[in-house]
Write a structure and sequence with these properties.
Length: about 230
């Protein structure tokens, strides 16, 4: 982060290919495609609090998954609010819950694969860093810390899943979820190209929202079906 120049907000960050208005709702599809996240987030949050429903064997995992699903719910509302009128102030409400979900997912994997205490330390330390990054971004108009905190856990999650042995079955779902996240990032970066190639039916950004919703769906299926492969010491 120190080696890179300041990255300020730019008006171009809030310009999307599909700006259609249906029934008086600005940027309609970008708003509506955020709501699948709400459904899976609410269901996942409720189920993760009941260990008998999901394959959760230690309390540290419950904390991590609860924050993950809470972030997904927050992202649904925050993304919809932002896309009604995209600007620098509103984007925080989309970015903040997404960062909560990402660092929670990373910390949960540390709890599962490495150590429960270390994972919980990561969870609450990273939460503090997320809050600090948002304050830093708003104060100094600099996106570097936020981008770092989003990027590093995103690549660390599949790396951890690959390096450390799985304690549960269905661990391949981690890699599928990481793949869907990458697809979402790719189609979002090709916003206009996707919009043009689909004959202006759906934009890359709207398609990215749908792909992002598939990530917690896949992880929820993993939690539902998995079983312990290696006995826990804790």
């Amino acid at each position: 982060m120190v080696a890179t120049p300041k990255i300020p907000h730019s008006r171009s960050h809030h310009q999307y290919a599909d700006m259609r208005n249906f029934l008086g709702v600005p940027n309609t599809l970008n708003v509506l495609t955020s709501f699948p996240l709400l459904m899976v987030g609410v269901v996942g949050f409720v189920l993760c609090l009941h260990g008998s429903c999901f394959g959760i064997s230690v309390k540290g995992e419950t904390w991590g998954w609860a924050f993950f699903y809470a972030g997904v719910v927050g992202l649904a509302f925050g993304s919809s609010y932002y896309h009604l009128k995209p600007d620098d102030s509103r984007v925080t409400w989309e970015v903040f819950p997404m960062m909560i979900s990402i660092v929670s997912l990373f910390s949960t994997l540390v709890v599962e694969r490495v150590d429960e205490r270390l994972g919980l330390t990561c969870l609450f330390s990273l939460m503090s860093l997320v809050l600090g990054s948002i304050a830093y971004e708003r104060t100094f108009d600099d996106l570097r810390l936020r981008m770092t905190l989003t990027f590093i856990p995103s690549i660390s999650i599949p790396a951890l899943a690959f390096v450390f042995p799985a304690k549960y079955s269905h661990s391949r779902y981690w890699f599928w979820a990481a793949g869907l996240y990458l697809v979402a990032k790719f189609v979002a970066s090709a916003d206009m190209k996707v919009y043009w190639s689909t004959s202006y039916i759906i934009s890359g950004h709207s398609l990215a929202h749908i792909n992002l919703a598939l990530v917690p769906i896949l992880l929820s299926l993993m939690l539902w079906f998995r079983n312990i492969k290696i006995p826990r010491d804790s």
